[in-house]
Amino acid sequence: MKKNSAELGLKFFLKIFEIAPSATKLFSLLRDSNVPLEQNTKLKPHAMSVFVMVQHFEVTKFALMETIKEAVPEMWSAEMKSAWGEAYDRLVAAIKAEMMACSQAS
User: Fold this and answer.
1) Model confidence over 4-50: pLDDT tens digits?
2) What's the domain count of the chain?
3) DSSP for 31-98?
4) Residue span of the structural domain in which 8 resides
5) Which one-letter DSSP state was computed for residue 106?
6) What is the pLDDT of residue 104?
7) What positions does the domain Globin occupy (predicted)?
8) Beta-carbon neighbour count of residue 48 at 10 Å?
9) What does pTM read for this prediction?
């Protein structure tokens, strides 16, 4: 997947924008552009960097958990850690499933 990360990353973002077109408003690089998304010269490099980044799910999970723990130390507990861990794992499973479906469709 790494060798094709630019194309897969772009497909990933195009799928997001297909499902939720209003999501384009969240990206400053797309807000003032009249160019079709698949032809936007800034989207592909951004998509590639995000796609490569999401291959580091465990590091991201650890960083998220530590950030939450530091933000609300008085609330942090084994139960909270477990709940956040499960929510993150489910999100990652859904992302990976969609990535797999997108790669098999091409």
Assistant:
1) 777 777 887 888 888 888 888 888 878 777 888 888 888 888 777 77
2) 1
3) HT--S-GGG-TTHHHHHHHHHHHGGGHHHHHHHHHHHHHHH-TTT--HHHHHHHHHHHHHHHHHHHHH
4) 2-105
5) -
6) 58
7) 1-100
8) 19
9) 0.51
